[in-house]
């Protein structure tokens, strides 16, 4: 199950990376257009904000799969294996609960955004599809934490930067 979750999260990260490349090209085009033609591309700032939102949420789970998030492991590294397992389990369960609560809140927010017809300020882009990508990213993150809990409980492992 953990490998299937990792493959899904890899795909979401691939989409996130592709969007990051597109964002980079759009920013370069805007800078060149602004500098040489005195004509900035309309809505670039707005598209940047919306795209970064999608990039971040779609990349969360992959970062968790490979433990690429920020950690302060001075105390953790000093613990014996059993202590690391207990700490890893508590951390994974709390993180699972928080990501599930966030996903539930975003899920409800999607319907409010759709019902209100909320759009971005200048380009009038509907906001609910952006919220859907946040929801998808948070569900993927929750699944990643479920994989962590199963790994810790079943395989008696600990969470570390080791991708296996």
Explain what this protein looks like in three dimensions.
This protein has helices at 2-37, 44-65, 74-78, 81-116, 128-155. The model has no long low-confidence stretch (mean pLDDT 93). It has one domain (2-155). The two termini are 14 Å apart. Helix 4 runs antiparallel to helix 5. It is mainly α. 23% of the residues are buried. The radius of gyration is 19 Å and the shape is elongated.
In total, the number of strands is 0
Integer count of domains? 1
- Write down the oligomeric state: single chain
Give the amount of beta strand, in percent.
Answer: under 5%
- Name the overall outline: elongated
Main beta-sheet annotation: none
Cα(first) to Cα(last) distance is 14 Å
**How would you spell out the order of helices and strands?**
HHHHH
Helix content: over 70%
Topology:
Elements lengths: L1 H36 L6 H22 L8 H5 L2 H36 L11 H28 L9
Describe this structure in a few short sentences.
By secondary structure, this protein is mostly helical.
Any key phrases for this structure?
mainly alpha, 0% strand, single chain, 77% helix, 164 residues
